Amino acid sequence: MKEPILLTIYKNALSLTSYALPQLAGTISAKRFMTPTRHKRPHWEKNIISNGKESLLACQIKAWHWGEGPKILLMHGWDGRGSQLGHFVEPLVNAGFQVIAIDGPAHGDSPGQRTNLVDFAHKMLASQNELGNFHAVIAHSFGGAATLLATNEGLQADKLVLIASPYDLQAIFDRFTAFMRLSPQAKQHFQSYIETEAQLTVEEIQTIISHVGAPVLLIHDKKDHEIPYSDALKLKENLQDVDFLSTEGLGHRYILKSEQVINRILDFLMTTH
Fold first, then answer.
1. Is the pLDDT confidence value at 2 over 80?
2. Distance (Å, rounded) from C-alpha 142 to C-alpha 169?
């Protein structure tokens, strides 16, 4: 697919700037990296949240609630919305769970313009302080890494389900800076700016998310073109108590609608570890 002409012009200008003014280019790129795109909810998502109880939590996070019982938190990924995991709601409610979907900071209907992994994790912790402990967290993509970080900082969940979750955070940075064609110096400023905002280095976060005690169900598609399948294999190697479902042909997003995936999650949540 051909790259839009305006994006090409923007990248070329920023790339040239990165050699002449690396700190400026690094800062501009970092701010862009931390600014998610808000996408409109499709009709099927609107229908699902219209049947839930809507609330704005004290931490300024928008939430929707369905059903009664042990709480299951649905955590979306970057550029996403809690309702993207909406196909899980009815099966989980029918199984006797209370389902809570939230829009992360600067995503969906929650306020904000920029955010980062640490901010996501802290908002998850603040949400739990108001909502109570979770039986499980079901997280997609970037939300999976935020969940691992939040769990190590005190998030209480008996089980974790991580779908298409990243592991190699440095590789995400490297792919972005390569896409923007930044100079080596600008790359350093880019990463330094984000680490200062997050108040943790990538290396520190990587160490933290590699150690989680709760049982984890990893789900990843071999044809995922956004988060490499190799990240799931690395997570599988590093986490202590892991079940693993490998799929093929579902990609990065359709995996959230798969009946096979939903049934496997239900089995995992209903099984006593």
1. no
2. 10
Q: Which fold has domain 52-167+209-273?
A: Rossmann fold (3.40.50)
Tokens of 221: 């598609």
Give residues with Cβ within 8 angstroms of 105, minimum separation 6. Answer: 60, 61, 111, 112, 115, 119, 120, 123
What pLDDT is attached to residue 273?
57
Q: Which sequence spans correspond to the domains of the chain?
A: 1-33+173-207, 52-167+209-273
For the chain, the average pLDDT equals: 94
Tokens of 252: 């990065």
Say whether pLDDT at 209 is over 60. yes
Environment class of 5 (CB within 10 Å of its CB; exposed 0-12, middle 13-18, buried 19+): exposed
Residue 171 confidence (pLDDT)? 93
Amino acid identity of residue 8, one-letter, is T
How distant is the alpha carbon of residue 28 from its chain centre? Answer: 23
Whole-structure pTM value: 0.94
pLDDT grade, residue 1 (50/70/90)? low
136 closest CA partner among 160, 155, 113:
160
pLDDT score of 9: 87
